């Protein structure tokens, strides 16, 4: 049975790599992200380099591919081995970039992944000033899911001085002021 699971996951990865259909790629990536939810698949997904596939997809122009890749990484990064791999592969930066996505699910997964990826060693990166500023903006969102998640991030992962510094910096910026029209 276990060999069948590996073969099935390999078939999905192969299909993703060989298909030219955007719709098929989206469907396969969604399936891989769902399989990433089950810890019994972690070893297979590492063996098949799915973490790299997810990380690579974070910079795609296709928002659906980014959403599923970010969801897959979010599912995988609770595992200690996967977390270390993502951190070593410089995965925090592309995850932070996903905070500016217009796709709500991508943003929610990115915030959650940053929480899961925060360790004493990675904290400086996952709670860098721009991230804290972003979380402050998210905490004011009308979207309850996002505002609650951002509030938890600020409370549990950031120090009070970090939050205060970001608040003070935000007071002196033009965030939210529209640019003049031509």
TrEMBL record:
ARM repeat positions: 49-91
Superkingdom: Eukaryota
Gene3D superfamilies (UniProt xref): Leucine-rich Repeat Variant
SMART domains attached to this UniProt entry: ARM
InterPro entries given in the database record: ARM-like, ARM-type_fold, Armadillo, ARMC7
Descriptive protein name: ARMC7 protein
Organism for this UniProt entry: Pomatorhinus ruficollis (streak-breasted scimitar babbler)
Record lineage: Eukaryota, Metazoa, Chordata, Craniata, Vertebrata
Gene label: Armc7
